[in-house]
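Hello K.,

You asked for the raw outputs rather than the summary table, so here they are, unedited. I folded two proteins back to back in the same session to keep the settings identical. This is the first:
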Amino acid sequence: MAELAWSLKKANYADDTIRTVNSALRTLMARNADLSNPESVKEVIAKQPWSENRRRNVANAYQLYANKYGIKWEKPKTKFMRKIPFIPKEDELDSLVSGAHRKLAAFLQLLKETAMRSGEATKLKWTDLDEERRLITLNTPEKGSNPRIWKISTRLTGMLGALPKRNIYIFGNPNTRAIRASYCNTRKSLSRKLQNPRLLRISLHTFRHWKATTLYHQTKNILLVKEYLGHASLENTLLYIQVEQAIFGLTNDDEYNVTATNNKEEIKQLLSVGFEYVCQKDDILFFRKRK
């Protein structure tokens, strides 16, 4: 597997992706799959009590292995099952920040304010931070996302500035494993201390879901949320409309003018006067604007 890992590295796959692929292949072998025999692999996958997403990820990992070694196989049919994310209360996130050690606290506050992925945050360099203007720039996004820049709070600027500058990376190590382990230990300890088992449901990625949902609630602008998250496709952002409406509901103040069109010029005009995209049905795009 070392040879496969090196070939993926040369192909510019992310380190986290390479580790995930290796982990999936080791799991298959631990369950007595013969990696040189694709039918054996398919049989092992079929027998596991995994979620549909887990099956899909393992099958994709083996596909990379098969491609590397010229093995022909018919990948089992799987589908991506999108789940509704857990959205904690803000004071629960704040309790994790305040209960963490200095470096982890700064890391969590960064995720809370910017909605970065943890892998993106660990790769930040000191040159990405403009302390004077309180700006932080991400030019190495993950998962095909777009680069982003944020204005951060005075508090976060101070937390980051207080960290030791031992190397070029703000958090010292661009590998997420160490900070994930530290976070899991801190979360478990605080969950017991505060008698709040909900904290155990808050992953590092939950901070991103919370920020997206909160930002949409504050602005009702799904395109702004898309750009904030760096999503290449709006389809990945639309989930937060449903989540926000479930959490906050529709109040009497949430009244809109609604319109629909598929004309490009009309779409540009609607967006220019404050209408926001909501969804698409067939070839018709729907927009709304607060009354």
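The second followed immediately with the same parameters:
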Amino acid sequence: MRLFFPLLHTNANYPTGWLHSSWRPDPTVVLGCFALIAAYLWWTGSRDRDASGVQRHQIEGRRRSAFVAGTLVMLLALSPPLDDWSDSYLLSAHMSQHLLLMFVVAPLWLVGMPQWLLQRMLIRPGVRQIGYAVTRPVVAFGIANAIIAIWHMPAPYDAALRHEPVHVVQHLSFLAAALIGWWPVYGRLPEWPRLSKPLQCLYLFAMTIPGGAVGAFITMAKPGVYTPYLQSPRIWGISLETDQQIAGLMMWVLVSSIYLALVTVIFFQWASEEDDRQRGPMPRVSAPAPDGSAATPGVTG
């Protein structure tokens, strides 16, 4: 599984190099991320050319940049030093990994995937119906937040920290939850339509509630809610309690702030579009008459 989709690797020993890191990235993580980028560029480039070499579909450069950037962020999140800190020392570093995957990687992938490439999935039996069902706002909201809440319970979280296969499943689940959860806002298939801008604002506001509840639980729980960190050496003078509070506040305050900032941006975009629509097209003004007199606006001779 790691060769197919590289995710987290768990180290039994505490890294002791500079900045408490081994600075040894997992080769499967590096190769896997660059293979993903290569496959994307091939599908949207040479694979999409006809026999004469002409590109069948046009793709904007910003979309390619978004997908590549998202994959590189995943590489940074799953490589030293953040990966070493996450595995061995700090819950807050582990939370940073999760937030990068869910709030940077997944949205950039959705922005970067062209519509025509996504539509190729729809020819497979059942994909259209299943995809439509899970990307409906209420279902997407429920699935995404259920996955996040379950994995942040102490028993599943501890199991992920202790067992690499479970950790791989956890990160795969977080990416899947994020892709489903962001679809009503960033989805690009008309067959699985996203929400209108006013409903996007309502949806994103609702998304602050479950994550805020999980973040509040972590913040206010007794220190050591996730037991593997009880034995971790404390680095940079960050106590177990402070580390856990930072992690909880990231999920409670930071995540809510991101959602509310997006609500603000989307609301003003919608308000601007509505204002332009109500104004209608600008009246056409005719050129002056040859004798220098003013022509009647909107009337041509």
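The longest helix spans residues 240-279.

Happy to rerun anything if the numbers look odd on your end.

Regards,
P.
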